[in-house]
Amino acid sequence: MTQAEIKLCSLLLQEHFGEIVEKIGTYLIRTGPQPLRMIVNGTGLVLDQVKKALCVLIQHNLVTYQLQKRGFVEYEAQCKRVLRILRYPRYIYTAKTLYNDTGELIVEELLLNGKMTMSAVVRKVADRLTETMEDGKTMDYADVSNTFVRLADTHFVQRCPLVPETPESPDAPPPPAPTLVINEKDMYVVPRLNLVGKGKRRRSCDEEEEGEPKAKKQKQDGESSEPPPDDGIYWQVNIDRFHQHFRDQGIVSAVANRMDQTSSEIVRTMLRMSEVTTSSSAPYTQPLSSNEIFRSLPAGYNIVKQVLDQYLTLLADDPLEFVGKSGDSGGGMYTVSILYFWTLSPFRPLIYFPLPLRFGSRCARIFRLLLRKKHLEQKQVEDFAMIPAKEAKDMLYKMLSENFVSLQEIPKTPDHAPSRTFYLYTVNVPSSARMLLHRCYKSVANLMERRQYETKENKRLLEKSQRVEAILASMQATGAEEAQLQEIEEMITAPERQQLENLKRNVNKIDASENQVDETIFVLESFIESTVKKP
C-alpha cells in the first residue's frame, strides 16, 4: 500500500462520508486488521461514533469483519474497494447508456446506500422519476421492477450474502459476529414480488398531509410499517461485472481500430453471448460456434454465413490474436482472448501520454523501439531510432532515472569487467505500469485537493448563489411578478456572476480530468492483475 493510495483513499472517504468515517477508514488502511478496542484507542473517538462509522463502512462494503479464534472480531479496510468510489460516475453513466434513466437511478441508489432491498429501490426510483415528470404523469412500479430484473439477469446487480437460518437454542449464546453465506446459484435470482403502485411526488404529499393531526400521521405510518415481502434480501452493485463491460468495450474498440467496423461488431456479438457465462477473470471467453455467432448477429447487419466465416478466419489469423480458433465443430469454434488484450493495452498510455509530454517525441520513439526489440545496446538504439549518439544517450539516461527503462548487465567473464560486459536497455512493462499507476493516484489526489481548494475559496459566493436560487424558486411557485424576480436576480452582481462561471468551468475541467485519469488507472490495474494471476 503506497502513500499515494492511502492519501487518495482518505480524500475519497472524507468527501463522501465525512471526517469521522474518514478518520476510522484511514486508520484501518494504515494499521491493517484491528479489533474495536484498538480502533477506539487509536483514533481517540467515542465508542458510539466508532460503531456507527464502522456500520457505514460495512454497509458500503468498504470494511469487512472476521471472527478470530480467541473470540474477538477484527475489522479490515478494503483499500481497493475504497478506490472504486472514484469510478462511481462511470458505473452510473454505463447503466444509463444500457438501461436508460431507470437503470441509471437504480445503480445510483444502490451505490449511494450500499445495500438495499429490491422493493425499497423500486419505490425510491419510481418516486424520483415521478418528480421529474410533467404534472399528471407518474412512474409505474412495474416498469422500474422490470429494469431491475434486466440488471440482475445481466449480473450488473447481485444479492448480498445472508445470515444462514439455523435452529435457535435458548441455552447457546449468540456468536460475536454473524457469518454471511450465499449460494452462487441464488446470486442473481430475483424474488417474485407483486409491486403494484406508482411513484409519488414529494411536494403533493406534503400538501396533502399539511394540517393533519400528528396522531393521524403516525397511524398512517403504522399501517405501512409491515415488512416488505423481500425483507432480508438485499442487493448491491456487481462492480466486477461493470469492469467486464469496460474491458469488452476496450476489446471492441481495439478490433475496430485494427480491422473495421464489421469485425468489431462480430467480436461485440461474441462478447455479448458470453458475458454472463464467462468469469471476469477468465483468460478466454467460452467457445462459440460459427453458427451460434451467425444467429446472434444484430438484425441490421446483413452478413451472409460465408462472409462471416471469412471475417472469423481473418480475425483468427491476425497476429494480435484477439480471436482464437479452438475447434472445427459447428462451423468452427472461436474464443476471444482477454488475457492477450491486457498484455497490449498498457502500451498506449505508457507511450503516448507521459513520455512525449515529459521527455519529447524522440523518447517515445526509443521507448516504442525497446518494446518491440526487447533488448538493445546503446549503439543499436542510436542506429534503429536514427538519433545522434549524444541525444540518444541523454534520453536513455533520463528514462532510466525515471524508471521507464531498465539496464541489464550480461558479463562475458565472471569478474564483471566493464570492457567485457554487454549493457542492454530493456523495458520492464509490469514495473513501468506500477510506476505509472502510482503517478495516476497522485494525480487524482492533487485534482481532488484542487477542487476542494476552489470550492473553499468561493464558499461565501456559492452560499449566496444558493440562497438567491432558493428565493427565486419560492417566488416563482407563488406566482411573483417579473420585476420582482429581476430584482432578486440582481442581488448577484456581474463580477460575482463571472466568478461563478469561472468556478463552474474549472470544477468541470477537474471532474473531466479525474474521469480521464481513472480510465488509465483501470487499464493499468487490469494489466497488473492479469500479470499476477495465473490463467
UniProtKB/TrEMBL annotation:
Assigned keywords, A-Z: DNA-directed RNA polymerase, Nucleus, Transcription
The keyword Acetylation is annotated on this UniProt entry: no
Annotated GO MF terms: single-stranded DNA binding
Biased composition (Basic and acidic residues): 212-222
Family to which this protein belongs: Belongs to the eukaryotic RPC3/POLR3C RNA polymerase subunit family.
Keyword Nucleus: yes
One BP term from GO: DNA-templated transcription
Gene Ontology cellular component terms for the protein in this record: RNA polymerase III complex
Function summary: DNA-dependent RNA polymerase catalyzes the transcription of DNA into RNA using the four ribonucleoside triphosphates as substrates. Specific core component of RNA polymerase III which synthesizes small RNAs, such as 5S rRNA and tRNAs.
Subunit organization: Component of the RNA polymerase III (Pol III) complex consisting of 17 subunits.
Listed Gene3D superfamilies: 6.10.140.1450, Winged helix-like DNA-binding domain superfamily/Winged helix DNA-binding domain
Pfam entry (one): WHD_POLR3C
InterPro entries (UniProt xref): POLR3C_WHD, RNA_pol_III_RPC82-rel_HTH, RNA_pol_III_Rpc82_C, RPC3, WH-like_DNA-bd_sf
Domain RNA polymerase III Rpc82 C -terminal: 146-336
Protein name per the record: DNA-directed RNA polymerase III subunit RPC3
Lineage, opening ranks: Eukaryota, Metazoa, Chordata, Craniata, Vertebrata
Top-level taxon in the UniProt lineage: Eukaryota
Location of the region described as Disordered in the Swiss-Prot/TrEMBL record: 162-181, 199-232
Location of the RNA polymerase III subunit RPC82-related helix-turn-helix domain: 7-65
Coiled-coil zones: none
Compartmental location: Nucleus
Domain DNA-directed RNA polymerase III subunit RPC3 winged-helix: 358-427
